[in-house]
Amino acid sequence: MIDIRPTTEQDLDLFVETMHAAFGMFVDPPGEGGTGVWWSAFEPERGLLAHDADGRPVGTAGAYTLELTLPGGRIVPVSGVTAVGVLPSHRRRGVLTALMRRQLAGLRERGEVLAVLLASESVIYRRFGYGPATSTQNYAVPRQRAALAPLRAGDADPGTVELLHRDKAVELLERVYDEYRRLRPGSVSRPHRWWERGAGQPPIAPKPRYVALHRDAAGRPDGYASYHVDDDRTLRVDETIAVTDAAYTALARYLLGHDLVQRVVFRHVPPDHPLPWLLADHSAGQPEKYTDWLWARVLDVPGALTSRGWSADGELVLDVDDPFLGEHHRHLLTVRGGEAACVPTDREPDLSLDVSDLGTILLGGTAPSTLARAGHLRLHHPDAAARADALFRAERAPHCLHWF
Ligand SMILES: CC(=O)SCCNC(=O)CCNC(=O)[C@H](O)C(C)(C)COP(=O)(O)OP(=O)(O)OC[C@H]1O[C@@H](n2cnc3c(N)ncnc32)[C@H](O)[C@@H]1OP(=O)(O)O
After folding, report:
1. Of 96, 117, 292, which is best to mutate to test ligand 1, by the most ligand atoms within 8 angstroms of its C-beta?
2. Confidence check on the interface: ipTM exceeds 0.95, yes or no
3. 189 lines ligand 1 (CB under 6 A)
4. What is the DSSP pairing of strand 314-322 with strand 351-354?
5. Which CATH superfamily is domain 300-392 in?
6. What is the average pLDDT score of the chain?
7. How many CB atoms lie within 10 A of CB 27?
8. 99 CB less than 6 Å from ligand 1?
9. Average confidence (pLDDT) over 249-276
10. Architecture category of domain 3-112 in CATH
């Protein structure tokens, strides 16, 4: 028998201890420096602790209160599921399943249409209705092949790049990131608390970093890159955040032009990043470390479909199966002028899919036809693929580079 109880501030130590035992790791206690800092941004009132029949804590799950940007620049509140773990001694007995069931019910009660998470292993979460919605990768450029293609006449950047230290730039980083994440589908907010406490990965974490800050012609900050050079003479870029293409190009030029480095490794580049097109030698850079990143779980089918923006008009009947919650939805989705209506229907479906696949296509990063070719979703008419692809396409590839 598994008993699941919500946590409070008083349970934080027990929660942290249980979760780290699940990962087989030791960490500094909350409140101290190092890895313990991460827990200072945790929301203990949103945690769940699973107890076994003897009352011992054996599993954990938590959630952050975040915002997610959907296609069309629509922003919705979401829970960022985190800190999921089950003690090695209690694995494969349904503890996680019980935690997920309880957590999903709670998230629905909050009225949220979606939940998101980053998965430690990509085999875990599909069964609970999550689908991979964004991916990320590194992009490595050897310095001796890093020359940029010449700019066209008149394309010189009227802005400037200023060199700062991370500690002196935190407020600017927070502001620029916030502007950026509102524009890019798939991005999540970074609560002020994270920046304030240095809880996260660099540049949120106060590790020594240089920051190249881009300002537009009017002097307004509109992009940054956080980086350092390692002993192996690799310039590692934690993230390149740019509100405009001009800012991105200027930052790439700055980083690729750095002296005394052998390689420049850009972390967390989106699938549609322009780097290969900026280089004079198109194949100089190599993608590395491709991985799934943000997983999305639709909690409310019509709510999620009407929350995003749409760039094409059309109509589709979707048959959505939610085996984990034991639900089945057939909805007519009608899009006119960028707005969607979604109502129950008994019309014949155009496509049938699992709720996890709806999470994947909702953000626009994977076309429905790709999932159909992989046998994930079923198309009921020859033209359903083209109609679904045209409808679900996002104005930009979704991307998330926040780690939580
Ligand atoms: C958002 C995040 O926090 S991601 C972090 C996830 N946590 C970790 O990776 C920490 C280390 N791992 C663990 O703590 C545990 O193994 C967990 C949390 C992944 C799984 O917990 P369990 O209590 O064992 O899961 P549970 O018993 O409910 O398993 C449900 C199903 O998922 C399967 N499953 C669970 N974890 C895995 C896995 N890592 N690989 C393959 N299958 C898995 C089970 O086999 C089971 O399948 P079945 O229904 O066909 O029998």
Report:
1. 96
2. yes
3. no
4. parallel
5. SCP2 sterol-binding domain (3.30.1050.10)
6. 95
7. 16
8. no
9. 96
10. 3-Layer(aba) Sandwich (3.40)
